[in-house]
């Protein structure tokens, strides 16, 4: 069975975006060669990408652009080449190269996709999608990059919509020179299954 991994950049207080949808705070850290190398390596690490509609439209407007190819050529090449899925109730088509549109209920569509043969599935951003899939128990690993900033009441909490509790087990952590921190957790039920 394919694994479903959520890769999220969140604030210290667990927000994935401001209440107005802005996430420019994710790029306000000073340049860090180690962080840049991690981003490039992560983009080339395999897997197939999953997005919600909002994140998909933002990504599809940037990565195929000449500016992306000039500023981040390795990441742009990978983002454009990798197979992608977009979950949406409103889109009629997905025009970005190698993208499959998953219309309807994202939970049932991703349950089916996980059972099919193929590479692991990695959700980038898409906080509302991550929350719904996490609530349904479909996420096998949370890879969270903590950006040392607090949004408080101006932020959208990644786990704010959860009804119950979730126990997690730390599987990896890494600190970067720019203050970012990668922490990877598996839900305890998933950790016990291995």
TrEMBL record:
Bacterial bifunctional deaminase-reductase C-terminal domain location: 4-181
Coiled coil: none
Recorded superkingdom: Bacteria
Transmembrane intervals: none
Pfam families per record: RibD_C
Signal peptide from the UniProt entry: none
InterPro entries, per database record: DHFR-like_dom_sf, RibDG_C, Riboflavin_Biosynth_HTPR
Protein name per the record: Dihydrofolate reductase
Organismal lineage: Bacteria, Pseudomonadati, Pseudomonadota, Gammaproteobacteria, Lysobacterales
